[in-house]
Amino acid sequence: MSRSVLRVCLLLLVALGRPGAASESDQDQGEEERTHPPRKGLGHTHWSYEDRNRWSEDYQDCRGTMQSPININMASTIFSPHLRAIQLSGYSLPANERLKLRNNGHTVFLELPQSLAITGGYAQQYRAVQLHLHWGATTGPGSEHTINGHRFAAEIHVVHYNTKYDSFKEAMVQPDGLAVLAAFLEMGPRDNPYYQELLDHMQQIQRDGEEVWVPGFNIASLLPVNLKYYYRYNGSLTTPPCYQAVRWTVFNQTMMISRDQMLKLITSLRNDDGKPLQSNYRQIQSLHGRRVLASFQPTFFAPKQLPAGTASSAAPEEHSSSSFQAGDVLAVLFGVLFAITALAFLLYIHKQRNQNARLDSPIKSKVIYTAATTENTA
């Protein structure tokens, strides 16, 4: 073999066999990843409310036709006499039962014992798993569902799974797997002592992943006292993976918390990027022909009524501000009549005072009235 050929072979061997060349490159790349970790993408392990318009790119179910939340148009709801009052079991917990409250980067999340259950209002029994809240920011409200286009200050969700399945994980991919009880929150004049049970601990879980144990209390007090009046429809989880497995119950009555409590809710927590955790709600989704049932007949926007004996296709089964019922309408009418009467009386008094003022005005000549004389005719 010629010397030139040998020289070429040796050069190739040196180039390919430099000790540690490839390993040093890999080591440098690994060091770069440790010191500057790659930014979390959407993926199936992470999502963000800032990227909610892109959820459907990574989660197929988020593109479905039975997504939540929705706007509930009261005039389009269908009254269903088959919808019975929601009945709860085991919701009143003793103080010595500890509950885990956690900031999961998306919301405040309270784990619930499986002794809590929905025992009425659905065809099956559903076991509680957790509750969480959605809220806005100092610039605006943040409920997920809306009523006639109105968005409330905040919204609470109590999540349950169907007991015919062995676990929440198994149930969450089944069409009848989950039941969520939802209620709206509004600002009122006084603190709500039951919501204070959660808000007292918000400062302890400011950062993503932080958790604290809280004493048990009556979880039912976070929901309206009257559980007879609600809307029902088939929908989905409102966060990825958006599984279309939820029988939604949205109560017509709202819960009241004080302005200070609302401020604490929307300013206490931070997300996984260290930013204030605010406006953690999803946009309204299209109904795509779904029907929304009502367990009652609103007075001002009377829903259509299902014919007698008709089964509901919108659902296979089947404490707080007021809903508009007949008694409320009468009270409003009497109040309006009283206000009109009072206003008319005040206007009359004002008119009389103005007339007297004009008569007594120093810039006008006074009129002296004398008694009429009597003419003697005799």
UniProtKB/TrEMBL annotation:
Disordered: region residues: 21-46
The protein's required cofactors: Zn(2+)
Catalytic activity: hydrogencarbonate + H(+) = CO2 + H2O
Leader sequence segment: 1-22
UniProt KW keywords: Glycoprotein, Lyase, Membrane, Metal-binding, Signal, Transmembrane, Transmembrane helix, Zinc
PROSITE patterns: ALPHA_CA_1 (PS00162), ALPHA_CA_2 (PS51144)
Pfam families: Carb_anhydrase (PF00194)
Residue ranges occupied by any Alpha-carbonic anhydrase domain in the UniProt entry: 45-296
Entry GO MF terms: carbonate dehydratase activity; zinc ion binding
Known function: Reversible hydration of carbon dioxide.
Similarity comment: Belongs to the alpha-carbonic anhydrase family.
Name of the protein: Carbonic anhydrase
Naturally occurring in which organism (per UniProt): Amazona aestiva (Blue-fronted Amazon parrot)
